Structure formats: C-alpha cells, structure tokens
Amino acid sequence: MRWPMWMVNILEKVLPARKLEVFVGESLPSKLPWRNLVVLRDAGDDWSVGMRCPCGCGQAIELALIPEAKPRWNLYAEQGSPPTLSPSIWLREGCHSHFFVRRGRVEWVRKTGNPRWPR
Ligand SMILES: [Zn+2]
C-alpha cells in the first residue's frame, strides 16, 4: 500500500531516525525491517545496504557498496550513529521514489513531473 505523501512526511518526522543493522551472511535477509537499513557484511567487508522503499510501497532496495559495482553508494555510519547514504536513491521502477538518506532520515527530492508529488 502506498501512503499519501503528507503521511509519509509526518511519520518521518515523528518516528526515531532509522538505524543501521548489521547482517552477516552472503546475501541480505529476504525480509527487510520496516524502517531500518541493513548492511550486508561478509568477511569483514560491507557489500551492500538493503532497505524498504520509504514511500510505503514496500519494495526492497539493495544498494551496492563495493568499489567494483556501478552504480555504487557510500555509507557513512559512525559507530551507533544513524546512517547516511550518498548519492541519492532514485528508483527507476515502480514508485519512482527519489530521496536521500541523511543521518537516518529520509529527505525527499521534489521534482516537477514526479507523480508522487501532488501538484
Ligand atoms: Zn516506493
């Protein structure tokens, strides 16, 4: 179910910042947490980050962290502090959400013509 944008924005403000969970294994868990980000760690390396699309569509998002991957993302998370990802995350399929994750908070990119935004 997709939530209206005003509800997504209110939830993002009132709920605590998203945390980073470490998952040790060879692939991300098939069931991702509702809000938190999961980093896949194997042999001491961080391979990818998984999260659910914050628009409410529930789509699983996997972002590669390894230098060889294209595209790839940077994950900044000092011990125990809320995670930051760069660059932004822009879904090419489904809901076409475009957002940043900064310090555990989703910041939406407002874009003209984005069907997610009321005109
Ligand atoms: Zn979505």
Describe the model:
This protein is mainly beta. It has one domain (5-108). The protein is 8% helix and 36% strand. The chain contains one helix and eight strands. It has one helix spanning 5-14, and strands spanning 20-24, 37-42, 45-52, 60-64, 74-76, 84-90, 98-102, 105-108. The protein has a four-stranded mixed β-sheet, with no helix packed on it. Strands 5-6-7-8 form a four-stranded antiparallel β-sheet, with no helix packed on it. The chain is globular. It binds zinc ion (ZN). Zinc ion (ZN) binds at residues 53, 55, 57, 59, 94-95, 97.
Number of strands: 8
Rg (C-alpha, Å):
14 Å
Kindly report the spatial arrangement of strands forming the biggest sheet. Answer: 1-2-3-4
Order of helices and strands: HEEEEEEEE
Unreliable stretches (pLDDT < 50, length at least 5) are none
> Which structural category do the helix and sheet elements fall into?
mainly beta
What fraction of the residues are assigned to beta strands by DSSP? 35-45%
Give the integer mean of the pLDDT values. 90
The total tally of domains equals 1
Strand and helix map with partners:
Layout: H1 5-14, E1 20-24, E2 37-42, E3 45-52, E4 60-64, E5 74-76, E6 84-90, E7 98-102, E8 105-108
Parallel strand pairs: 1-2
Antiparallel strand pairs: 2-3, 3-4, 5-6, 6-7, 7-8
The chain binds zinc ion.
Residues 53, 55, 57, 59, 94-95, 97 line the site of zinc ion.
